[in-house]
Amino acid sequence: MKKYTVRLTLNGTPREYSVGANELLLNVIREQEKLTGTKYGCGIGECGACTVHVNGKPTLSCLELAVSADGADVVTIEGLARGGELDPLQKSFLDNNAVQCGYCTPGMIMVGRNLLDENPNPTEDEVRTHMRGQLCRCTGYASITKAVMGAGSAGAFRMPAE
Amino acid sequence: MLSTEFKSVGDASWRKDGIAKVTGSEKYAPDVSVDRMWFGRVLRSPHAHARIKSVDTSAAEALGAVCLTFADVPQTRYNERIVSTPPCLYRDRTVVADKARHVGEALVGVAAPTEELAEKALRAIKIEYEVLQVITTMEQARKDGAEPIHDTVLLDGKDKPIVNNVAVQRTIDVGDVEKGFAEAEYVIERSFKTSRIYHAQMEPKSVVCRPEIDGGITVWASTQSIHNTRILLGQIYDIPLSKVNVKKVMLGGSFGSSIQMNSVTPICVGLALKAGHPVKIATTREEDMHDHVRYPSEIKLKLGMKKDGTLIAGEMHANIDVGAHNIQAFPFLGGLGGFWASLYKLPNMKYVGTAVYTNKTPSCAMQGFGAPQAHFAVECLMDEIAHELGADPIDFKLNQYVGLGGTFWGQGPASKCIIRSDGVPELLKTGAELIGWDKRPKPGSQTGRMRKGIGMARGFHTSGVGHAKASGAEMIDYSGAIVKLNEDGTVDLIQSLMDHGGGTNHAISKIVAEELGVPTHMVGLSPCDTRTSLYDVTTHATRGIYAGGAAALKAAKEVKAQIIDWAARVLDVLPESLVIEPDEDLGQGVIYCPNLAERRMTVGELARYLHLNSLGTISSSQSMRQVNCPPAYVSYFVEVEVDTDTGQIHTRRAALGSDCGTVVNPALASGQLIGGLSKGQGYALTEDNQWDPETGELVSKGFWVDGKTPSMSESPKVGDIDTHFAHTYEPTGPFGAKGLGEAAKNPAAAAFGNAVYNALGIRFYEIPITPEKVLAALAAEKSTKSRQAAPKAPAPVAE
Ligand code: FES
Ligand code: FES
Residue B596 pLDDT > 60, yes or no? Predict the structure, then answer.
């Protein structure tokens, strides 16, 4: 099969891959880079476990061909903590016990981070709308909602104004 | 109980695996890869029921692939869940099947240097099938002349014929049920149905096997028990256990679906041994959805009572569809009957449980194991009786539940214990206050489009399957732990017990810290495997903290005794005079003599002293079985809002209570309850699986969204869920703790059913209560009302 060269900036480092036309971004990240924080949950866009940032936008890497990401800036969960410091959202997930089995966690954090970048102080409804495509079977979502709001500029989950 | 008298137990520390999980560095089975690894794929049957006439793998092999067919695997049948003892273990599996019994049945394993080549080779395999009658219902299966799905199974070394596709039947009799019903002044009988939902754990099952140079194997697999996986693989492939090493990797959720060795695990091992290469099989979501579901049930429940509602007799017939393989129907049926017996006092009862084979995805354990099914029937029926008698369901249930001093059946007739801690009255009182129970509407009194209702259900799960008998157990139940003191005063806890995500391992590290008197952060959770750890049966039956925690506590006690003993010599005081307490400023445990202030040293100083003077390592390795199985009580109050135009039911509020004894991880425990509500909501309202009656195909074809797992936007809002804990102390549990996990879901479906009744005045006896069912019931009620016929809720039958 014909191979294509794909260049990415991955977690801040320029990288180059030779891939088939049908290779998924998810597989490049997980298999070539061995960055296994990005999860396979369904492979067809149902669960959100594979979410990464492509040029700052949350992207389902199981639905993205590697060739179509050529030239992109890609950030995975491993690229979020900088210089040994956890991202405030990662800390908030721990403070709010928003992690159980943890399999959905990387995708959740990537989507939550994107929401906070666009909207530093989201309401509960905004969190629920933004994250409704991310499945979690363990937590029932309340702790995750709290964690995302807790990492916002208000610094805590707040009840909606009556 | 939320206790302040403990230092580590109940603290709010970050879970120990938390940083790895939020940074993506935690390793789950699908994340494992080793050098020179090949990739495996599995050829699965497109037919629900077919004999295999021939298999031709030559074209696949010509491509460079290695194939594993029925002819290549050991022919002795096994059961993949070796929690039950041999007389209770129905064996009907082989590594790959001799006959297709459900769509998705594994028939041939294929391995090749790349996954792409493995898939190509798989498609080159030719199988000739002789298609047989497809059986998708229990009625079809039991008809005379129905095609047998299994002719025989292996039970305790003997071939047991299977008649009319009945996999197993179990009866339990207590007292004299006929006499009981004869004395009853009221009798009520209802039929309930629960669905065959998918576990929907986020991690699809995966496995890596590396053959070792000494003839052994190293295996990384999704599993709830590394030791049972090891024992089975050793048995199947005839490898001494000392050469079978199964590594502990994190579970990406499971909910019971990895209590058995996953079907791909022995296939991967067979391929690796044949190829002489490490092999990895990472299943797809579609494959996973064809591999396991929850036991569904059809329950007929009849209760006889005195005029005031005092129960005197009960009869239950439970039929369960096990699908194509009997993974654990015998313990399941025992569990279902035993949980029923433990809900309300019934002097006379008769239980008949029947498990039937069909050509569908095999059923297996899922959070609650018979309890959600029993709770749905019993808690809905008790609510109905209370309403008919004009009693408050809370009082009605409080008067008759099995509580303090009563007998609890931990999992069927073989595990029973006397109840020694009971927070039920407190749970129901608090829950009722939080939800506003007294302000709930009168059933059927509302007329608008949106109608709200509050429902209550209570129940429990067991904490393990411990029992006092020395032999003759139906189930294996013990755990081990190794605790050792490192040279700087930190502690390693080595335990094979798996954490489903609830925080069990973290909780146990706190139990060890509490006992040793060191800060929580000083106890580390060691990576381990079957070669370096003691046996643990499996993380099931809500036994993690209660049974696994108790084993670790036993080891910690021994370590503490040694620490005190050595410290007494070093400090020149009597051992009895010493105490150890954590000192947060020093970040160490401090050993001191309260009467002689200067006689003190840190645990780290002692450890260093022992090390530098070659006095040895302080450690303990302990294994134990709990002899009790206390109920972890739980209470559910939910408020729903029914849209009578669309039939949709929204979960608006919930008050969830747990009596887990001492709460070891408070925030995580509350998270367990909320997670239980989420899965309970799915079970009660949306989730289901259908199989095409003609072809036996899963109608969803493996699309997850069709399973209707609840999403964030369908869940109640943060401020609308309350969780609370009873102030109890379980005398047989580590620091007073008992279980929680599975209890968190068990009464959910009944609470939803009762809430919908409260909103609409209509009883639903079948879950999920989908919009279609709601609309049909509303339409039926309307036509009934317009004809002014029968009363809307069926009344008890006077006999
Ligand atoms: S793996 Fe990409 S959405 Fe599920
Ligand atoms: S924490 Fe397990 S799936 Fe979300």
Answer: yes
Question: Integer distance in angstroms from the first to the last C-alpha of chain B?
Answer: 45
Q: What residues have CB less than 8 Å from B619, skipping those under 6 apart? A: B482, B483, B484, B485, B559
Chain B from 4 to 63: CB within 8 A of any A CB: 14-15, 17-28, 30-31, 33
Is the Cβ–Cβ distance between B234 and B240 less than 8 Å? yes
pLDDT at residue A56 in the model: 96
Residues B569, B645, single domain; the answer is no
Q: What is the pLDDT of residues B597-654, one digit of tens each?
A: 899 999 999 999 999 999 999 999 999 999 999 999 999 999 999 999 999 999 999 9
Together in a domain, B583 and B459: no
For residue A23, the chain B residues in CB contact (below 8 A) are none
Query: What are the tens digits of pLDDT across the range A61-102?
Result: 999 999 999 999 999 999 998 888 999 999 999 999 999 999
- In total, how many domains does chain B have? 2
At the second CATH level, the architecture of A3-77 is Roll (3.10)
* Chain B residues touching residue A132 (CB < 8 angstroms): 711-713
**Residue B799: pLDDT band with limits 50, 70, 90:** very low
- Cβ of B21 within 8 Å of Cβ of A102? The answer is yes
Q: Could you say which of B679, B704, B718 has the minimum Cβ distance to residue A46?
A: B704
Residue B620 sits in the same domain as residue B686: no
Name the pairing type of β-strands B596-602 and B619-624. Answer: unpaired
CB contact under 8 A, B668 and A140: no
Residues B787 and B757 in one domain: yes
pLDDT tens digits, B173-231: 999 999 999 999 999 999 999 999 999 999 999 999 999 999 999 999 999 999 999 99
- Measured between alpha carbons, how far is B679 from B674 in angstroms, rounded to an integer? 9
CATH 1.10.3720.10 assigned to domain A88-153? The reply is no
pLDDT tens digits, one per residue of B540-560 = 999 999 999 999 999 999 999
Q: Are residues B640 and B775 in the same domain?
A: yes
> In ligand 1, which atom is closest to the CA atom of A51?
2
Examine residue B564 and state whether it is found in any structural domain, yes or no: yes
Domain that holds residue B593: 18-25+478-624
Average pLDDT over residues B116-134: 98
Of the candidates B5, B97, B93, B92, which has an alpha carbon nearest to the alpha carbon of residue B42? B97
**What percentage of residues in chain B have a pLDDT greater than 70?**
98
Tell me the longest C-alpha to C-alpha distance in chain B. Answer: 94
Query: Is A140 in contact with B674 (Cβ distance < 8 A)?
Result: yes
- Pick A77's closest partner by Cβ from B23, B200, B252: B23
Looking at the complex, report in whole angstroms how far the Cα of residue A6 sits from the nearest Cα belonging to chain B.
Answer: 20
Helix/strand/coil (H, E, C) string of B364-387? ECCCCCCHHHHHHHHHHHHHHHHH
Judge whether residue B706 has pLDDT over 90. no
Q: What pLDDT, on the 0 to 100 scale, is given for residue A159?
A: 62
Cut 0.90: pTM above it:
yes
- Return mean pLDDT, chain B: 96
| B22 closest CA partner among A25, A122, A107, A45 | A107
Q: Is the pLDDT of residue B3 over 80?
A: no
Bridge partners of residue B590, in order along the sequence: B581, B602
- Interface check B282 vs A, CB under 8 A: yes
Q: Based on the domain organization, do B659 and B774 belong to the same domain?
A: yes
> A4 CB under 6 A from ligand 2?
no
- Dist CA B85 CA B97 (whole Å): 24
What pLDDT is recorded for position B6? 94
Is B417 in contact with B477 (CB distance < 8 Å)? no
* Interface check B702 vs A, CB under 8 A: no
Tell whether B528 and B617 lie within a shared domain: yes
Chain A nearest C-alpha distance from B469 (Å): 35
**CA of residue A67 to ligand 1 center, whole Å:** 18
B788 and B642 in a common domain = yes
d(CA B504, CA A42): 27
